[in-house]
Amino acid sequence: MCPSLPPVSAEDLVTSVLTSKVPALGGTVTVHNALGLPALPGVAAPLSRPESTLRVWSDGQGHDRLALPSRGGEQVFIDDGTTLWRYDSSSRTATALEHGAAPDHQHPPMADPAHTAQELVGDLRKCSGVTVDGTGTVAGRPVYQLVLTPAPTERTLLRGVRVAVDSATRVPLQLTVLTNGSPDPALQIGFSDLTLGAQDPALFHFTPPAGVRVERPESSKPPGQHDGDMIHTQGDGWDTVVLGQLPPRQPGARNDPVALIQRIGHPTSGAWGQGWVVQTAVGTVVLTSDGRVAAGAVPQQVLDEALAR
Asked: How far is CA 23 from CA 76, 133, 170, 173, 265, in A?
């Protein structure tokens, strides 16, 4: 049975979501994924598995911790307020990225539903129809159901997103992505259990264990990024296109994204040249023969136009 909550307008709910502050919390996040994405290098594990769980913690003061299961261990991201640490227990490596070294890459991939939904609502609110579609319960807490649908002018494969907003804190607790032609979610990220309150301060500090190799990038590029492959976007809202350049191929490399896309994709061409395309229910990726990549929750035509500019 849905909880009875005081009425709230869509505009007020959006405003409260964008101005809410994530409190101190700890919880388990469950990811249900029907995106159809292959296990590409750089794609977070929860986006290439049908179902995943991860653990998140926040002290409510800008210090965060996220733990992702990985093959043979786990990846842990810790933001201690000055440095974003990434530790991979399986490879025994750690990367320390100082705040300000790469402003667009401060958050770990697959952040918790609160941060992810806040950013999404902020990006889409001006090009969407926004409604409040009743109430519900997530992780035992009553929520409002905020729904954003693309404006008719938006060229996207998505038909909307639902954000479950905590009725007390106004922090998003669950994000659901819906596509055209299917009643089932393509992606759902939400807390399956959640505890609000102070967390152990030790969670937000990291000291590399003995024997761990530590990398400290000195340039403005994020760890693992090569010259010429800085990511940028074209457009905004639902039909935003992300563009980038793959690093040079390494002969015999185990994780070769070009070989993978060639295997699962289909040959394609356009004014931009020749390449391969991979299409799923929620998005399209085009890889050109010279290593350029375009991706978005859009039909291929939108990517072709972006690559040709």
From this structure: 20, 25, 10, 12, 43
Domain 10-204 fold is outer membrane lipoprotein receptor (LolB), chain A (2.50.20)
Q: Which residue from 175, 187, 109 is spatially nearest to 143, judged by alpha carbons?
A: 175
Q: Which residues contact 218 (CB under 8 A, 6 or more apart)?
A: none
Where along the chain do its domains lie?
A: 10-204, 226-308
The whole-model pTM stands at 0.84
Handedness of CA 284, 282, 266, 45 (dihedral sign): positive
Q: Does residue 107 register a pLDDT over 70?
A: no
Helices first, then strands: H and E counts in the chain? 4, 18
pLDDT (mean) for 95-110:
63
List pLDDT tens digits, range 119-159.
Answer: 999 999 999 999 999 999 999 999 999 999 999 999 999 99
